[in-house]
């Protein structure tokens, strides 16, 4: 079956939905295709106990509040997925689930793209790649297969019962690594946590959540620094939300170690950078307190003092005298969980929109290949781009760009004689969740 749409949005996560809302607002016909279910990654690619990192009043789209959750509470991953299903219904998003895009190629000698899907070919004038900021688990090739009974990426971790008995090495101390390590420790496991460079904002300060502080201080809107990658932010909404404090994790029995550097003879070696990484994280934490205090003073806000937030306490023994080698057998380590981030996979997108390293070439999501757009990538336009609220704003810009381009393309074209008109297939335009 040959189908035609004006704009094809690939991916039915939050980015695809935001795109659909803004395209509809611009009067642009479109279709969203999702290979699984709406917001699938929240449903099946994250651990069981995960909750949002930001409170419900913040981590949402402007047009819909979470139902049945205190605005200051943290939605569970299932509640987030349900929220996006409800959102798709609310905006009447034209989504087809269970359809995977397998290839996109530029039409030869005429506008648009030929899109191959698991459900036939679609001709699209514009294509928006909304397939996620965190698509493919990345595990650095340090510890060979078979060195421990189980090595998994954080995206495959579900709960402590999934792991064989014994100690666990968690590599990576962003939001995922610290939360998984804390959960494993709480379940009674011996846990080693490998800590690299990170930002560590306070969960809240002087009565305001860090999401609020990043907002009023203009940090969510910080523009993309040259060559910026995703910044590891250690923050947690677990158990009602709390500041990630490595001293506290150590006091709870988690053995902190430096960056995981190499492996040989059954032994993992760690860089001697633990103290430096903790100190830099502390400096990031304190600098936000300083900026918050200055903002309060400058604007005469009446927010309660919180001097105890500045009491960091002494460094734990594992930081002052860091472990540089861990024999996995002697340490009883049976599992390694790599909370080491994600890459992207655009192997289906055969267009001239990538640099020599395979990274998307774009400006605010407008790619180097006219007609192709990216959405949801870290730092697409600003720090908030890969987060729930941020993608909504980026989608507005991309939709506006598409609308403008359609205006140019329509100039001088006689609708009656154009043989290349794109007509949305009526049967495609319905929500299927
Ligand atoms: C552990 C974790 C916790 C996070 N917590 C928060 C948080 O608390 N707050 C926050 O704001 N952000 C959070 N994020 C960041 C971000 O909000 C999520 O990663 C979010 O899932 C990104 O949404 P997206 O729509 O851009 O991409 P995705 O959710 O990845 O959606 C992309 C969709 O595209 C589909 N797809 C992919 N390829 C194809 C194809 N070829 N054809 C058809 N469909 C395809 C996928 O199935 C998927 O459903 C978190 C991220 C992680 C990893």
Automatic annotation (TrEMBL):
Family matches, as InterPro entries: Auxin_biosynth/cation_transpt, FAD/NAD-bd_sf
Keyword Oxidoreductase in record: yes
Gene3D superfamilies tied to this protein: FAD/NAD(P)-binding domain
Key words, A-Z: Oxidoreductase
Superkingdom, taxonomy of origin: Bacteria
Family annotation (Pfam families): Pyr_redox_3
GO-annotated molecular function: flavin adenine dinucleotide binding; monooxygenase activity
The name this protein goes by in its record: FAD-dependent oxidoreductase
Native organism: Acrocarpospora macrocephala
């Amino acid at each position: 079956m040959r189908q035609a749409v004006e704009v094809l949005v690939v991916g039915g996560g939050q980015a695809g939905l935001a795109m659909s809302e803004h395209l509809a607002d611009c009067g642009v016909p479109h279709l969203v295709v999702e290979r699984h279910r709406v917001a699938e990654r929240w449903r099946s690619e994250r651990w069981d106990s995960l909750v949002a990192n930001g409170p419900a009043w913040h981590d949402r789209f402007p047009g819909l509040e979470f139902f049945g959750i205190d605005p200051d509470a943290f939605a569970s991953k299932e509640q987030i997925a349900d929220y996006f299903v409800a959102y798709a219904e609310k905006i009447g998003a034209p989504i087809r689930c269970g359809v995977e895009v397998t290839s996109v190629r530029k039409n030869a000698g005429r506008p648009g793209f030929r899109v191959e899907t698991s459900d036939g070919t679609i001709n699209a004038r514009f294509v928006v790649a909304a397939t996620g900021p965190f698509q493919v688990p990345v595990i650095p090739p340090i510890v060979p297969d078979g060195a421990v009974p189980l090595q998994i990426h954080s995206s495959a971790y579900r709960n402590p019962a999934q792991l064989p008995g014994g100690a666990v090495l968690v590599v990576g101390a962003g939001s995922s690594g610290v939360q998984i390590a804390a959960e494993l420790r709480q379940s009674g496991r011996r846990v080693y946590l490998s800590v690299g460079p990170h930002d560590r904002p306070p969960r809240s300060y002087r009565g305001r959540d860090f999401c609020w502080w990043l907002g009023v201080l203009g940090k969510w809107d910080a523009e993309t620094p040259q060559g910026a990658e995703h910044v590891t932010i250690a923050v947690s909404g677990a158990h009602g939300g709390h500041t990630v404090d490595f001293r506290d994790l150590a006091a709870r029995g988690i053995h902190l170690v430096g960056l995981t550097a190499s492996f040989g003879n059954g032994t993992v070696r760690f860089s001697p950078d633990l103290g430096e990484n903790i100190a830099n994280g502390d400096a990031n934490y304190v600098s936000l307190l300083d900026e918050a205090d200055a903002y309060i003073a400058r604007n005469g806000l009446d927010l309660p003092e919180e001097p105890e937030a500045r009491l960091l306490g002494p460094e734990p023994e594992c930081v002052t005298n860091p472990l540089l080698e861990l024999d996995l057998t002697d340490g009883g380590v049976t599992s390694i969980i790599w909370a080491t981030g994600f890459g992207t996979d655009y192997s289906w997108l055969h267009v001239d929109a990538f640099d020599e390293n395979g990274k998307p070439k774009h400006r605010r999501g407008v790619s180097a290949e006219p007609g192709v757009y990216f959405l949801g990538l870290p730092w697409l336009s600003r720090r908030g781009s890969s987060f729930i609220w941020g993608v909504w704003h980026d989608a507005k810009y991309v939709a506006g760009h598409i609308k403008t381009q359609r205006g140019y393309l329509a100039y001088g074209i006689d609708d009656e004689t154009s043989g290349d008109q794109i007509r949305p297939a009526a049967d495609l335009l319905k929500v299927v969740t």
